[in-house]
Amino acid sequence: MLLQIGLTLISDHHCVLLLTRQRMKKITSSKQPSRNLQTPLPQLAILANDISQLAFSEKAIFSPIFKRWHPHAAGVAVATLHSSYSKELNQFVSSVSELTPDAIQVLTAADKLEKDLVQIAVEDAVDSEDGGKSIIQQMPPYEAEAVMANLVKSWIKTRVDRLKEWVDRNLQQEVWNPRANKERVAPSGVEVLRTVDETLEAFFLLPIPMHSALLPELVAGLDRCLQSYILKAKSGCGTRSSYIPALPALTRCTTGSKFQVFKKKEKSQMSQRRKSHVGTASGDDSYGIPQLCVRMNTLHHIRMQLEVLEKRTTIQLRNNIKSGHVNDEFTNGVGVKKFELSATTCVEGIQQLCEAAAYKIVFHDLSPVMWDSLYVGEDVSTSRIDPFLQEVEQNLEIISSMVHDRVRTRAITDMMRACLDGFLLVLLAGGSSRAFSLQDHVVIEEDYKFLRELFWSNGDGLPLELIDKYSATVRSILPLYRMDSESLIERFKSAALEAYGTASKSRLPLPPTTGHWGPSEPNTLLRVLCYRNDETATKFLKKTYNLPKKL
Predict the structure, then answer these.
(1) Which residues form the MHD2 domain (predicted)?
(2) 447: how many CB neighbours lie within 10 A of its CB?
(3) What is the Cα–Cα distance from 503 to 359, expressed in whole angstroms?
């Protein structure tokens, strides 16, 4: 009797294995027909579903009977099915090199089959001493999700690499044409965002169960591509320091030297010095002010669209991931990867472009009416700030009409900063063509007032508090031009004593140029004295530092 039962059990398991092998043989034979037929890969998905149904049938019909004589009747059956399918799956996996719809179907079905078979084996051995471990050990994992994840990662890398190549290629051809579209945004900027959006959409259309796990890797790759675009978009545009000219050596005035018109040689040297600080941005139309405005608009457009992409990604994540594959963090949208690199680089890029445009206008484009002309000549009153302000106003109109509303205040503020810096440089480092008498403070203060009014524009321009904030240094230094030379010398000595200690009593050290101007800063006070056109100042400079005369 026992022999008969054992033979029956063996016969049943043999029957299960035979059915599986017959199904495999049928699928194998279906691989051979014409190429016009459907590819054989989805058949493995069909086979996985069939095997799963067969396993549950075996568990429901035969296992309850044979369990009386065999403790793991269902477990032995599913282990056999698991092993049989594993051979076909391994052969398939070794031939797959890229993510395809067929590959996803097969791997998804294989993963579901394995979970079903393991569940049957565990439930069958729930009362056994080892909890079914001996059976589970006979079922090496398919690792279908790991294989699928690697294929998706390869898919992500391919898409990201293509986008990076596109960025490198198209930015070389971008001309930053302000007439390209009504938003005055570079076409390449619109296109790169469209590609990012399409890539994200294609990712969520993939029928995979691990969107939340692999999304950060995709977003990080796209983020790096966008950051590369932004960095290249602002590359070569210059910075504040690249346009500010080198400061001339300190000299002293001699009474009457103010009435000497400075030589052509000096003009040529100024021009050469100015050009040397412009760098690559001087001779290329793609770095003109209209083009710089397009670059600002493009970076602002990207920054705004990043927020849209992040919100859309959160919605897609909720809609495309099955609840069994997502945790609460991703459900709430907290875990969605941000475009942090590109967002930060956009903000920094806009700041740099606004500064570059402002300082290019003031120190390069308008250098003839500011650096080369303001307060130059026999009389300060004949070379005042009006011509410079007229040119600045024209450039402000160009910027205001071209840049996005959200960027405009920043761009105009930087223009004001550049003008104030230029104004101070003329006063404190204007070279041998400048010399101021005590009476000139009236003209200087009035010109400063005109400069402020240009940016306030009767309340239609920048807020007064913003103007006051950035003009604080100029306001603090202008009173020095009202002071007589004796008082300036005493203040300078006091500031030097405070800065350098008792050592300065015997001999005052020459204060270094820090660029941080202030009414109590030794170098600032010394410069006011250097440009003071009277005998008291020039004698002090001769005796204390032996500075050369103004040429």
Answers:
(1) 382-492
(2) 20
(3) 40
515 compared with 308, residue with greater pLDDT: 308
Domain ranges, residue 96:
2-142
Burial code of 58-95, b = ≥16 C-beta within 10 A, e = fewer? bbeebbeebeeebebbbbbbbbbbbebbbebbeebbee
Dihedrals φ, ψ of 498, to 5°? -70, -35
Per-residue model confidence as pLDDT tens digits over 173-185? 999 999 999 999 9
| CA pair distance 23, 50, nearest whole angstrom | 9
Task: Judge if 417 and 462 occupy the same domain.
Answer: yes
Q: Quote the mean pLDDT of the chain.
A: 82
Do both 338 and 471 map to the same domain? yes
Among 178-182, 335-339, 476-480, name the one with the lowest average pLDDT.
335-339
Helices and strands: H and E segment counts in the chain: 23, 0
Can you name the residues that pair with 193 across neighbouring β-strands?
Answer: none
Final residue before a domain boundary, out of 91, 118, 142: 142
Sign of the Cα pseudo-torsion (515, 519, 525, 530, in order):
positive
**Can you spell out the DSSP letters for 425-470?**
HHHHH-GGG--B-GGGHHHHHHHHHHHHHHHHGGGTSS-HHHHHHH
- Residues 376 and 438 sit within 8 Å (Cβ to Cβ): no
Quickly state the pLDDT bin for 499 (edges 50, 70, 90): confident
**N-terminal to C-terminal alpha carbon distance within the chain:** 126
Inform me whether the pLDDT recorded for 356 exceeds 70: yes
Q: Is the pLDDT of residue 258 over 50?
A: no
For residue 529, give every residue at least 6 positions away whose Cβ sits within 8 Å of its Cβ, in sequence order, or none: 485, 488, 489, 492, 537, 540, 541
* Statement: the pTM of the whole predicted model exceeds 0.85: no
Q: Rounded to an integer, what is the distance from CA 100 to the centroid of its chain?
A: 32
Decide which of 142, 173, 197 is a domain's last residue: 142
Instruction: State the total domains in the chain.
Output: 3
Q: How far apart are CA 286 and CA 273, in angstroms?
A: 23
Among residues 351, 480, 365, 514, which one has the least CA distance to residue 417? Answer: 351
Both 428 and 517 in a single domain? Answer: no
Q: Is 205 among the domain residues? A: no
Same structural domain, 396 and 495: no
Confidence grade of residue 262 (pLDDT, cut at 50, 70, 90): very low
Q: What does residue 373 show for φ and ψ, rounded to 5 degrees?
A: -130, -35
